[in-house]
């Protein structure tokens, strides 16, 4: 089989753009696990809420991409705050099983609520950019893919600066690395956990709203993406944010390459095949686990 270099470059660029959006989801999961030590099974439904918020904000705002994106992110951050205050605030760090049941139940409720109000019919989302894009020779990238990838990079840079140089970020890292020592210096775990949940929901909302113009929007879209995000967090090392980003971009590339040369069934199974291989060779993941590491 002859591989065309231009076609391979097209697949590579598409894979990087997709991987950066996957990374937003995985980093949100890593934040929640690092601070609260729980796996949020409703994380995919926050992404779905972001996608639906984008779907309904766009017509109201005249198909303008950026205001709709901001509205969707704010909506998911509010949803994250409500989820934390109503369901997660009273969870203790030793109630891992209870957190699974609560977030899994919330996931099911959100899926069926969305299906009741919005039906299961897939929705196509149009923006001011339509299908326009940048063309370099025979290589073409749509504006929605480029803007989504650029927004993800800006979000990662902002997250890095926040975690590294602000009191808010240092408190999150302190809780993740040593909860008892953080308590001794006056850091309040509940406030830190609430902020982490809001931040993770905002990242997920950015991913959902950026994915909405690229893929079909359905109540079940979060389910298809969250299992990949779980795999990415596991491959990168639980709580390791750079590890989650690297694993996500690698997955985007693998999916794009596999989908470009083989059947789509292999594309969907690629991430889990990689996860199994990684866990057999490195049970802790590719990078060091825990502590909400940012570098």
Automatic annotation (TrEMBL):
InterPro entries the record matches: ABC_transp_permease, BCAA_transport_permease
CDD domains with a match to the protein in the record: TM_PBP1_LivH_like
Keywords assigned by UniProt, alphabetized: Amino-acid transport, Cell membrane, Membrane, Transmembrane, Transmembrane helix, Transport
Top-level taxonomic group: Bacteria
Cell compartment(s), UniProt: Cell membrane
GO molecular function, one term: transmembrane transporter activity
GO cellular component: plasma membrane
Biological processes per GO annotation: amino acid transport
Main localization, broad class: membrane
Membrane topology recorded in Swiss-Prot or TrEMBL: Multi-pass membrane protein
TM stretches of this protein: 16-39, 46-65, 71-88, 100-118, 143-163, 196-217, 229-254, 261-281
Family to which the UniProt record says this protein belongs: Belongs to the binding-protein-dependent transport system permease family. LivHM subfamily.
Stated name of the protein: Amino acid/amide ABC transporter membrane protein 1, HAAT family (TC 3.A.1.4.-)
Gene source species: Enhydrobacter aerosaccus
């Amino acid at each position: 089989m002859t591989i065309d270099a231009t076609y391979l470059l097209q697949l590579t660029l598409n894979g990087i753009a997709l991987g950066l959006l996957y990374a937003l989801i995985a980093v949100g999961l890593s934040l929640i696990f690092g601070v609260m030590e729980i796996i949020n099974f409703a994380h995919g439904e926050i992404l779905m809420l972001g996608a639906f918020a984008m779907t309904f904000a766009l017509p109201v705002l005249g198909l303008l991409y950026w205001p709709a994106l901001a509205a969707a992110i704010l909506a998911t951050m509010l949803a994250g705050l409500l989820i934390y205050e109503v369901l997660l605030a009273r969870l203790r760090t030793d109630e891992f099983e209870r957190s699974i049941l609560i977030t899994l139940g919330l996931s099911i409720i959100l899926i069926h609520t969305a299906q009741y109000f919005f039906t299961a019919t897939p929705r196509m989302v149009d923006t001011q950019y339509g299908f326009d894009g940048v063309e370099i020779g025979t290589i073409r990238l749509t504006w929605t893919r480029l803007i989504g990838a650029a927004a993800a990079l800006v979000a990662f840079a902002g997250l890095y600066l926040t975690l590294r140089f602000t009191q808010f970020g240092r408190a999150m890292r302190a809780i993740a690395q040593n909860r008892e020592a953080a308590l001794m210096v006056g850091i309040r775990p509940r406030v830190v956990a609430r902020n982490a949940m809001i931040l993770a929901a905002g990242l997920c909302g950015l991913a959902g709203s950026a994915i909405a113009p690229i893929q079909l929007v359905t109540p079940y879209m979060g389910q298809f993406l969250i299992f990949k995000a779980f795999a990415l967090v596991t491959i990168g090392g639980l709580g390791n944010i750079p590890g989650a980003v690297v694993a996500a971009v690698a997955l985007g590339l693998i999916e794009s390459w596999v989908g470009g040369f083989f059947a789509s069934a292999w594309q969907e199974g690629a991430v889990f095949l990689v996860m199994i291989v990684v866990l057999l060779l490195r049970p802790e993941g590719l990078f060091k686990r825990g502590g909400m590491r940012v570098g």
